[in-house]
Amino acid sequence: MIRFPDNFVWGAATSAYQIEGATGADGRSPSIWDTFAAMPGAVAGGHTGDPACDHYRRYREDVALMADLDLRAYRFSVAWPRIRPAGADRTNAAGLDFYDRLVDALCAHGIEPLPTLYHWDLPQELEDRGGWTVRDTAERFAGYAVAVHDRLGDRVRTWTTLNEPWCSAYLGYGSGLHAPGRRDPAAAFAALHHLLLAHGLAAQALRAGGARSIGLVVNPAAVRPVDPASAADLDAVRLVDGLHNRIILEPVLGRGYPDDMLEHMSRYGSGLGAGHGGLDWLEATDEKTIGAPLDLLGVNFYAPTYVAARPGAPGAPPYPGSEGIDFPPPTGPVTDMGWGIDPSALTDVLRRIGADAPGIPLMVTENGAAFPDRIVDGRVRDAGRIGYLDGHLRAAHAALAAGVDLRGYLAWSLLDNFEWAEGYGKRFGLVHVDYATQRRTCKDSAHWYGSVVAANALPGDPPGD
Ligand code: PNW
C-alpha cells in the first residue's frame, strides 16, 4: 500500500462555464465564452456552454454523487457574470443564491467547498472595454471577489483567485485559441499583468475582509529539452520556462518580474494602442501588490512540454517570441487530447514549485485525462483513465516522499463537460454524462478513485485492465 498523509484532501474539480449551463438564468449576463462559442469555427462542433451538464439545476444530484464517491473536497468556480452582471459594480443576489445553495449542500455532506473566483468567464461588457488588457478589469475583479466572500465567507475557508492565468492571457489574447480570441502578443502580456494584478488586489481585499486562506491556481509547465546535451535546446528551455513559469511565479511569490522577462516583454508594445510604447501598464507598486501573501498554490498538471532549438521554426503562438523553437508532439502514449502521458513530470513540477515557494503549501488542483469511453452493458470502461490517475498519484506521492508540502489532490474532472475549444467531444469526467438525457453514470475510474479515497492509499501494484 502507498499511504497518503492523514488529512490529505481528496476531491474533484469543475468550472462554472464547463458544467452549469443555464447561461441566461437569474440575471446572468453573457461572458466572453458565450460570445466566443457563437463565433463560427471557434469551438469544435459549434458547441456552446448550453446546456453543458445542466449543473445549475442538477447540483444536488451532483453533490450526492460526490458523497457516494467519498470525496472530501470539491473545487468549483463562481461565474462572475452571475454575481456582477455586465461587469457592473451592482451585486445580483439571485446569482449568489445559487452558490449559497451549492455550498450548503456540500457542507451538509461534509465536503469542503474550494471556490475559484475566475475560471475564464469574464463578463463580455468588460471585454468590450478592453478586457484583461486594461487595469480597470483588475480593479473590478477585486470588488467582485469581496461580494462573493461577503456571502460565502462564513462557510468557505480556502479561496483561490484565478485559474491558470497563463491560459487566460496566452490562449485568450496571444494565440486566439480561447476567448476572447485575440491574437496579439502585446495584448497577451498586458493581459497577463492585469490578471496577476487582479489576483493581488483580490488577495488584499479578501484578507482585509477576514478570509483565512488565499491561494492562486497555476498550470506550471515541465519544460524538457529534446536533447539534454544541446546548449541551444537548453536555451530554448530557459525561454519557455521563463514565459510559462517564472513570469508568473516570481512576481506572485513577491520577487517581481525576472529581468529577462521584463526585457522580453518590452520588445512588444503595451497592447493599449498607438502611443503606448514599452511596459506602460507596469506601475510602481504593482509588483508589490501581485506579491501579496499567499497561503496555498494550486498546481494543475496534465503533460510535459518538450522543446528543441530549430532555426526557422515558427514557435508556438501562445508563447510570444518563441520563433526558432520547435515544440515536437509527444513520442510515447497520449490521451485523447494528444497530450503525452508521463507522470514523472508531475513529480518534477511539484518538487520545483515546492523549492521555489518555500513555506507555501501546495495542492494538485487539477489532474486528469480525456479518453473516449467504452460503454459495455451500461458500464463505462475507462482503464486508460485509471492508469493515468494511478500513475500521477504515485508521482504525487513521490513528491511527498521528497519532502514537498503537498496537501491534497483534486481530479479533473468530476463530470464530462464542455472542454473549451474542443466542445463536448473530449471527456475528462470520472462520471459520464449522456448529454441527450443528462444522465450521470459513474465510470470505472470513479469507483476506483472512490476506493483510493476511502483507503487514503493506493494499492501496492498498479492496476491491470
Ligand atoms: C485546464 N493547454 O485547461 C483548465 O483549467 C480546465 O478548465 C480544462 O478543462 C483542463 O485543463 C483540460 O484541458 C487547459 O493548451 C487548457 O496547454 C489548455 C491547456 C492547458 C490547460
TrEMBL record:
Enzyme Commission number(s): 3.2.1.21
Pfam families named in the record: Glyco_hydro_1
One GO MF term attached to the UniProt entry: beta-glucosidase activity
InterPro entries, sorted: GH, GH_1_N_CS, Glyco_hydro_1, Glyco_hydro_1_beta-glucosidase
Catalytic activity: Hydrolysis of terminal, non-reducing beta-D-glucosyl residues with release of beta-D-glucose
Keyword terms, alphabetized: Carbohydrate metabolism, Cellulose degradation, Glycosidase, Hydrolase, Polysaccharide degradation
Family stated for the protein in its record: Belongs to the glycosyl hydrolase 1 family.
Protein name: Beta-glucosidase
UniProt lineage: Bacteria, Bacillati, Actinomycetota, Actinomycetes, Micromonosporales
